[in-house]
Amino acid sequence: MDTANLTREETAARSAAVTVHRIRVELDLTGAPERARTGFPTVTTLEFSSTVDAIWLDFIGEGVQRVCVNGVDQEIVYDGARIALSGLVDSNVVRVEAIGAYSRSGEGLHRFHDPVDDETYLYTQYEPADSRRVMACFEQPDMKAEYTFVVDAPSGWEVLSNQSPTHTDLGVGVQRVEFAPTLPISSYITAVAAGPYSRVDGEWRRDDQSVALGVFVRRSLAAHLEAEEILEVTRQGLDFFTDAFAYPYPWGKYDQIFVPEYNLGAMENPGLVTFTESYLSRGAATDAQRAARANTILHEMAHMWFGDLVTMTWWDDLWLKESFADYMGAHASAVATRYHDAWVTFAASRKAWAYQQDQLPTTHPIVADITDLEAAKLNFDGITYAKGAAVLKQLVAFVGDEAFFEGARLYFAANAFGNTTLDDFLVQLSAVSGRDMSDWSAAWLQTSGMSTLWTETEADGRSILVQTDPRPHRLRIGLYERVDGRVLRREQRELDVVGERTEIDLPDADLMLLNDDDLTYVKARLDARSLATVEESLSAIDDPLARALVWSSLWNATRDGELAAARYLEIVRTHAPAESNIGLLTGVLANASYTIRHFVAEASRDQEQRRWVETVWSTLEAADAGSDAQLSWARAFATASAFDDGHQEQVRALLDGQAPEGLVIDPDLRWQLLTALVTTGHADLADVAAEQQRDDTGDGRTAARRARSSRPDATVRREAWDSAWNDLALSNDHLDAEIGGFRAGGRRDLVSGFDDEYFARIGQVWGARSIEIARRLVVGLFPASDSLEPVDAWLAANAEAPAALRRLVIEQRDHLARELRVRVAQA
Q1: First CA to last CA across the chain, in angstroms?
Q2: How far is the C-alpha of 141 from the C-alpha of 309, rounded, in Å?
Q3: Contacts of 801 (CB under 8 A, 6+ apart)
Q4: pLDDT tens sequence across 267-286
Q5: How far is the C-alpha of 570 from the C-alpha of 583, rounded, in Å?
Q6: pLDDT, averaged across the chain
Q7: Closest by alpha carbon to 340, among 327, 331, 349?
Q8: Among 105, 254, 280, 407, which is most exposed with the fewest C-beta within 10 angstroms?
Q9: Cα gap 308→184, rounded to integer Å
Q10: Catalytic residues
Q11: Greatest alpha-carbon span in the chain
């Protein structure tokens, strides 16, 4: 057994036998700037009660130097993941001295050296089980404790943790910072960050409560921080959640730090929330990008209650934090900030993630069966986040807004600083709503898959609403008509749909939306008349949420092979140039590009690609100067130009400063454009070197690596392949760059020879690398072939492979099978 992969059963037995009280963690990070130094001293002192005389601690690092149990040194029994403890009594004090390893994969304590100023930055990322890479601990969410962190770091650095410092000792070139003890929290949401971060301070006040706010970023990005907007959204969120949950923010300060090479969008460490630097633009940014950042800020803030204050007992109930946070992020954005169209973007883009995940053979209930940590890692997916949030939106429609929030208030009051399961929430919701929630839970939380909804007309003229995989829905049907060049809602009907067939009595309409206002989670098809209206008048629909539902329906039908890819692309070319909602536009542009590369039959692909590039370029030229639309179309043009070099002269002109009026060609867009030229053979290494000299930053070096690996040469692609698999020094971002370069331009002629080697490698890499790095390799390098035989052969021959690895391969197989199936339908 892989002892790093903890199981649900053994962790449940451990928490039944052990009660943790206090944990003190001392980290010596003074050597972090020395690049040759791979590890750091870490000392953990744990105070806990035990009903057994032997147990284990979790730790993954360079080595364990000393284990002391109740004042007596023990022989070190350490297998690389677990430290055995023996001789335990009722009340114990255990001290572990060890060496942790600095990370380049974004797991544990990540270290980044900024090439702009040669400064070193550190931050931790633990979810679901990487705090053991920094300290010896009980790595499971139901063993909460008070944590005290003590950090030695170079003088002049910002040193941060969940709580505020209580004492700082200054030495010669070093400092020791001791932080106040936390309230009881799980190990995976403890956090430390250290480095010469730039900081902006603020404050939030409500009655007699005052919360210190801090926003942090590395110095070379300080000019791009937009701290005032971030602080404004933070204050709006604290106002909203304080009222909504009737439980004061409990974690003292509220720091938010933007960090490099981050694996996630953000992480809800109480008092020290971490965000990817991708939320900071190095040049132009659309309002949709700022809306996405605001949504994430509020998503993480919701976790201060859902997840941090009350935590799931085990990862089966991951939805108790992620589904709620995803719902609250959109809801709070819509009602508490200027981003009132948050549910529009959710309907078109966020739910698309859920629909895709829910159609895979590996789909699972929202309340999932998580047997071990590897399964938990892979369940941070579209089901747990987006489907869970969509189902909560349906729940609010079912029980009412006030009952939902009152249930949440009772849930926090009853379970503060504790751990819960599904039943703990449902019992509170049942009490306030007066409804038995067991049937709702069984239909929505404990089953997988989704319903598809459409209308049929019986021989006698009756209209029937048909749903596959029947579930109970509270929904609205919108009836729209064309009036003076606009498409307006004339009428709306609300009804409950339960069985497979429901008779409905509706008047004729130019456009009928079966899930108007997007109250439920369902794939809603357009009838023939509605589709004809959409083809002619989609951009004339006034309501952006209605347009979002139409775009979503079209995309789902295209993915399912029910709407011809060419017909979908024609609708996009006709109506995307007039799409005024930038969040919608961004998603539509991405889906159009994906359709061409994956769903269009090979014989038609070049023609469709040329038509798309022409549309994108002409729309870019016609866009309003300085508008978000102009920037969005410019980015789409850069993406499309990597697959068709018919506009390489225009690409070069943009790089040479001949841009349409108002268009900002920022460093990231410049790299997109240059990489497109490299991919099609119209730029070379000298161009890449010149651009890197112009942008010699961390992001610039990563982009240069990708550009170099994108050259249309078989030897170059072999070098990228070898680097991805074999270069253990690659950071997570640099690995992605090599994978992106290897796959650039969809050049199967350059990479198809690696298919067999892929299947020979994945089993070994899964056992040898961290799960984050192994996942990127397995997913990123999966062969985009025209046959399922190689993957089917691997699955047949590797029935005993780790379940998490098989899940990833099965999912990639399903994506490929869908593409092949849809392409055949087009032909």
Answers
A1: 48
A2: 12
A3: 763, 766
A4: 999 999 999 999 999 988 99
A5: 20
A6: 96
A7: 331
A8: 280
A9: 9
A10: 300
A11: 90
